[in-house]
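**User:**
Make up any protein.

**Assistant:**
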Amino acid sequence: MVSRSEWNELHPGMRVRLGGLCQRSGLLRLLHRTRGWVRRDLRVLAYHRVLSVADPDRFDFDLDLVSTSVDGFRRQMQLLGRRFHPMSLGQVVAALEAGQQLPAQAVVVTFDDGYDDNHRFAFPILRELGIPATFFVSTGHIDSGLPYAYDWLVHMILCTQARELAIPALGLAEPLPIERRARRLLAQRVLDRLKALDVAAQEACIARLEAAWGMPRVAGHPDCRPMGWAQLREMHAAGFEIGSHGVHHRMLAKLPREELEAELRESRTALERELGTPATTISYPVGGVGAFDDEVVRATRDAGYQAACSYICGTNPLRAINRYALYRLPVERHMDANWFTAMLTLPELVGYPSSNREG
């Protein structure tokens, strides 16, 4: 499978050109009106970070998790407010439970993980423009303030002074490239292979590199911090939905049953304790085909959740909507305004291929 980084390097121009052509020709507005008549589906946008990165070559974390700049996000939300019907995932669930028909142009804005830039930059824009959104957070990181493990792995590979990368569990032992772009591609290759392991093996690999390179995650970093509970309480009080993303951002399908149930139960309990209302929605960490399965879906339903998002690219036909494996449309930093508009209007043609790497 082509990794997200490799896809970004190879193919963005094609989608930018297609989006621009459709916009200039006026085709997008026509298709926007007609698509709602012939195809009734729910579009769910997936964001991670909203951040203006001045110099990508000097950014020491995963650029693929920067969904858009602050200005770009404002323009995207203005478009949603003008042409679509934004809803929170909880509002969608309530409508489905009541047997009500969703609006023809229903769109849900979601965020995964719980980065502090969600509060600093995305939240004020959403509140100002009156756009509802759902934020899925990993409660263990909200408690600890620690960077996410996958982020830290990328950070270590980008910044280490070591000359070799050795991960025996992955059969990797190779020189570390000097050039930053090559290191980014290597880091994504490592992540893709790491996520094939069970969670215990994944965590052992990352801990081994932390010790070998003298780069403990407990040191933290100002460019990769989760939100705190005070920030989440402020957002919740302003009417934004806070959902679960597990406790420790672990791939649920790669956990023993007892630990899977604990991730689902304890994250929901923490959100209810801190925010005063139970979480009814969840996004599966990583979210691709290797991150959840039928057992995870059953456990999620049994834990009291009413809907769950995957990170598989696509839209959700209302006649056969699967509330426990909702498809989403990833928003990526390479998207310009035309591409973003085209993706919402023609997601089957302009969206990204599915990936199991993100979320």
In short: The first helix runs from residue 4 to 10. Residues 1-10 have pLDDT under 50 and may be disordered. The CA atoms of residues 5 and 245 lie 23 Å apart.
